[in-house]
UniProtKB/TrEMBL annotation:
<dbReference type="InterPro" id="IPR036038">
    <property type="entry name" value="Aminotransferase-like"/>
</dbReference>
<dbReference type="GO" id="GO:0009098">
    <property type="term" value="P:L-leucine biosynthetic process"/>
</dbReference>
<dbReference type="GO" id="GO:0005739">
    <property type="term" value="C:mitochondrion"/>
</dbReference>
<keyword id="KW-0808">Transferase</keyword>
<comment type="similarity">
    <text>Belongs to the class-IV pyridoxal-phosphate-dependent aminotransferase family.</text>
</comment>
<protein>
    <recommendedName>
        <fullName>Branched-chain-amino-acid aminotransferase</fullName>
        <ecNumber>2.6.1.42</ecNumber>
    </recommendedName>
</protein>
<dbReference type="InterPro" id="IPR043131">
    <property type="entry name" value="BCAT-like_N"/>
</dbReference>
<dbReference type="GO" id="GO:0009099">
    <property type="term" value="P:L-valine biosynthetic process"/>
</dbReference>
<keyword id="KW-0100">Branched-chain amino acid biosynthesis</keyword>
<keyword id="KW-0663">Pyridoxal phosphate</keyword>
<dbReference type="InterPro" id="IPR018300">
    <property type="entry name" value="Aminotrans_IV_CS"/>
</dbReference>
<keyword id="KW-0032">Aminotransferase</keyword>
<dbReference type="GO" id="GO:0004084">
    <property type="term" value="F:branched-chain-amino-acid transaminase activity"/>
</dbReference>
<dbReference type="InterPro" id="IPR043132">
    <property type="entry name" value="BCAT-like_C"/>
</dbReference>
<dbReference type="InterPro" id="IPR033939">
    <property type="entry name" value="BCAT_family"/>
</dbReference>
<feature type="modified residue" description="N6-(pyridoxal phosphate)lysine">
    <location>
        <position position="258"/>
    </location>
</feature>
<dbReference type="Pfam" id="PF01063">
    <property type="entry name" value="Aminotran_4"/>
</dbReference>
């Protein structure tokens, strides 16, 4: 009781000062805190929470509070065949607040899906203090639900949080919370090997202050969305627009962090590509026109190198490239096959054109959580169109990779990358 009241006192000192003085407790740990807080409250001063309350460096799954939706709040489950990406959401969500003045991380709460209430001065609304992750839960051929390498998403999310001035947390604890959320809404995981349940953990700064500084209050929340294919065309090769005047990221920036501020500036360029008849943007950087990413995906090239051997290459992680979970998985899988050379290095448009002119470019494809693998058919670059023979290969690598990854995700093969949700 005292602990709860002290926490409220930090936020509303004068209103609760008298209430706190009237409390009787045997808890000596909180006795001095209560006395100091009550005294300060009558003087209109807040006791700094970091000095008065135990620091909570992370939340704990064991503290999770669950409030289930009432029967009338439950929605009918959709037909997997008609799912669009990110258009429909499940019955529940996860919310975890952070308040420095209250000691740090608060208890995780699973609640019926609801709108957020934010102060008009919240940092997320003014300075884009926001980051997110993209994960999926898959219903396997055995009926069990699996998530794919969630620890990698947690590591990336913490790196993004540190860059955004947001508090970090225990990845394993959030995985447990997310697993509980998926378990509660498990009927939303499609009974289909062409669909899945998209998991979107999001972290925002909610300080009611216009000052540009680290967030002392934040909200980590997660919502779930059953999804079908990311591209409406399905598993078909896509066309790209490569325009050197547009840049997605730059050295020293946040291109290697999954922040919302990386994506808003790309919307106009994507719209231009669509209006010109192309499906995605191939992002270039620098005077040598380095390939960085394709749309929101990492990019891969498969070709015959100067030594006459097959080689798979993707841009190295130099600060411009998002360290994708699918990207890493493809690199690890292909290296374990030991069938061709696998490289991480700079790729330029000049090299792509040279490979095409010499008939050595075999395939090009994007890779990411949303689409897994997306083959490329052509690139419109300046005044030329580069037709990539990705779809005409007899046994294309992109398709083999897609089958290998989905076999793990849907439980067709047992693999440590697939974490089962009980």
């Amino acid at each position: 009781m005292v602990r709860s009241t002290v926490r409220q006192l930090v936020l509303r000192p004068k209103f609760l000062a008298h209430q706190l003085r009237c409390l009787h407790t045997e808890d000596k740990k909180w006795q001095s805190v209560a006395t100091a807080a009550a005294t300060a409250a009558t003087q209109g001063v807040c006791v700094p929470a970091q000095e008065s309350l135990p620091s909570m460096h992370t939340f704990r799954y064991s503290d999770t509070i669950v409030r289930l939706a009432e029967p009338h709040q439950l929605q009918p489950k959709p037909d997997a065949a008609g799912l669009q990406f990110g258009k429909l959401f499940t019955d529940h969500m996860l919310k975890i607040e952070y308040h420095k003045r209250l000691g740090g991380w608060q208890k995780p709460v699973i609640t019926p899906f609801e709108n957020l209430v934010l102060h008009p001065a919240a940092k997320v609304l003014h300075y884009a203090v926001e980051l997110f992750e993209g994960m999926k839960a898959y219903r396997g051929v055995d009926g069990r639900i699996r998530v794919f390498r969630p620890e990698m998403n947690m590591d990336r999310m913490n790196r993004s949080a540190a860059r955004a001035g947001l508090p970090t947390f225990s990845g394993p604890e959030l995985i447990k919370c997310l697993s509980r959320l998926v378990s509660i809404d498990q009927e939303w995981v499609p009974h289909s090997e062409s669909s899945s349940l998209y998991i979107r953990p999001t972290f925002i700064g909610i300080d009611p202050s216009l000052g540009i500084a680290c967030s002392e209050s934040a909200l980590l929340y997660a919502i779930l969305s059953p999804v079908g294919a990311y591209f409406s065309s399905g598993f078909q090769p896509v066309t790209l627009m490569a325009d050197p005047k547009y840049t997605r990221a730059f050295p020293g920036g946040c291109g290697d962090r999954k922040m919302g501020s990386n994506y808003a500036p790309t919307i106009h360029v994507q719209r231009e590509a669509t209006e010109r008849g192309y499906q995605q943007v191939l992002w270039l950087y620098g005077e040598d026109e380095q390939l960085t990413e394709v749309g929101t995906m990492n990019i891969f090239l498969f070709f015959i190198n100067d030594d006459g051997e097959r080689e798979l290459v993707t841009p190295n992680l130099d600060g411009l490239i998002l360290p994708g979970v699918t990207r890493l998985s493809i690199l690890e899988l292909t290296r374990s096959w030991n069938e061709f050379k696998v490289s991480e290095r700079k790729i330029t448009m000049a090299e792509v054109i040279k490979l095409m002119n010499e008939n050595r470019l075999l395939e090009m494809f994007g890779a990411g959580t949303a689409c897994i693998v997306s083959p490329v058919a052509s690139i419109h670059y300046k005044d030329i169109t580069i037709n990539v023979p990705t779809g005409s290969q007899e046994n294309p690598l992109y398709y083999r990779l897609e089958r290998a990854l989905t076999s793990i995700q849907y439980g067709r093969v047992q693999h440590p990358w697939a974490v089962t949700i009980d």
